[in-house]
Batch of 2 targets.
Target 1
Amino acid sequence: MKAIYPGSFDPITYGHVDIVKRATKIFGEITIVLMNNPRKNPLFSIDERFEMIKESVKDIKNVDVEIHKGLLVQYVKSSSAKVVIRGLRALEDFEYEFEMALTNRQMCPELEMAYLMTDLKYLFVSSSMVKEIAQFGGELKKWVPPIVEKALQKKFRQ
Ligand code: PNS
């Protein structure tokens, strides 16, 4: 079965990569769908994010990456995959995910959500956190793939 892993990935972190790896063990094929989150102002362009995702998951089998500029449900309706994966970390993720899941299901009843719990190692890793660390010149190696580390350092040097 094929599943969709949507997100804004600004930028992709090892927390996301871990979810992708674990999802491939459950679902046969994963499509990472890079989208915009209208609630967030991205640091990286969609093309920069796309390149970083592709490089970060290149060694994981049965994973592809696509860009989608509309609603998630529009993507789901046009796809043969109807399962959407999201990662969950702290309790604070839950409220937002619950709201998004129920809204999306109203618009697309065939959509099903699957939540994967983060690995303890990545409990506090988020794209916002790594951007903050990068801004103050902190160590990034543990949290993001090398291509993302370089891109963050470059962004904040500019
Ligand atoms: O990684 P993020 O920022 O938590 O991902 C959020 C994302 C991109 C999945 C969400 O913002 C989204 O679905 N954006 C597309 C617009 C959409 O479908 N909005 C309806 C959500 S109720």
Note: The helical segments are 14-26, 46-56, 72-78, 91-107, 127-135, 146-157.
Target 2
Amino acid sequence: MIKINVKHENRVTHKTECLIVFCAETAKPEGDLKKTDSLLKGAVARAMKDKRFEGKLNQTLLIDTLGTVAANHILLAGVGKKEELNLNKLFQASGSAAKRAEKAKCKKIACAPLDSSLSKKLGAKKSSAYDPASQAVAEGLHLSLYRFEVYKTKKKGDPEPVRVKDAVLLAASAGAAAGMKRGAGRAKIVADATAFTRDLQCHPGNTATPSFLARQAQAMAKSAGLKCRIVSPPEMQKLGMGALLGVGRGSAEPSKLILLEYSGGKKGQAPVALVGKGITFDTGGISLKPPPNMHEMKMDMSGGAAVIGALQAVAGLKLPVNVVGIIPAAENMPGSRAIKPGDILTSLSGKTIEVLNTDAEGRLVLSDALTYAARFKPRAIVDLATLTGAVLHCLGHHASAVVGSDQDLMDQLIQSGEKTGERVWQLPLWEEYESAIKSDVADLKNIAGPAVMAGTIMGGAFLKAFVDDVPWAHVDIAGVAWGDEKPCAPKGASGYGVRLLVNFLENAR
Ligand code: BES
Ligand code: MN
Ligand code: ZN
């Protein structure tokens, strides 16, 4: 993680390798940029006139200052149309700029204060304890520069790659600096948690076993001041978690149910329960997956990783809410003891499940976790799961899908998705879907039939049977947990869910 400081210093005299200047779509330099441009002898105006830089979102232009100001380079960073500016766009623009600066081999960077016409658009209130724009910029810097290099060995003599190490957010006034510092401090907490989630996603299945996830959650809980309890197979057996135990039966790795508790709210206030699918590797089991992309199934614990990361962030931010995290972790393997198609499991709820496809294992482990969640008497349950490949056909890598029992809860998640850029899109959960998972021999079957139709909704319909009377939302993150490179995320692990859940819990009604 880079070091970010806030300083009240003039942008013209601040010494840095690269000064980032955020700029909305425009045909010529405006506001503070106009003054800078005259020092640069019109270099910005020329770039705009020639359309080398138009201020489009995520567009950047690096200009050598040739000693006309203290910074070696000015990096223009487009934020798109001024009227449409929001914190998510600023976050992205900041990430794009940080990556561009690093590509230009800069170690020290700085961000000029936002033009007042831009900060006005972001509705930054002077009275607020922290500056949300600084938080967005700092989060963008941190998360765009994230890398996972745990398994890369260094050869002696290899040139050390140049990395951004320090950033300074320049404050326009001494008065503004305090709020900016608090914004940057919050960004560090959120970015650290997101990076933790990404790390968990990236570790291969032979490292990240259910026991590993449990140990990571315990270590996090200890340093963040959370309660953590791990339920192991003998206790699961006593409790009657036949569905979770069933999924882990084919693996030599023992399944773990990870329980995290954060009490930042009033004593006795009903908590929000966050449930995260924690399949540390999904081979499909006896209903084996085809080889081509099976290696990516190391990310099948992304929901669990997001819940663990979100709890770290919530504790760091000291949010005034009570939250429990519930992560059913197991490895889905074929083997002589593995569950087989046609097997019938008795879940913690007492409901029996005919397993028609062992590759629909996420809903099995989640069914017991959702039943267990009710013991905390939560005011709402939100589950995050890489549940279906079908969600990729619906929405690609650009949004998760939400279904649930409570429109207000889903609306809150959708709204948090808009604000954070971790988009959420609702699918229907009509009664007709629920009838498709009634089994002939048991209470439920884990897939509707051989023809996969509305797979994402069917997964949700199955889960609904394990939630009684509590507002509940199921977020299928199979499309968004792992993806292409984005301004603030590398190719692969996105850490999706941490920023979404933090925003949701900040506004939880
Ligand atoms: N973990 C997978 C879903 C998945 C697919 C996650 C692609 C990430 C990327 C899940 O356990 C699964 O195998 N789902 C099946 C369900 C089917 C058998 C009803 C699927 O989507 O094919
Ligand atoms: Mn599966
Ligand atoms: Zn799975």
Note: The longest helix spans residues 174-202.
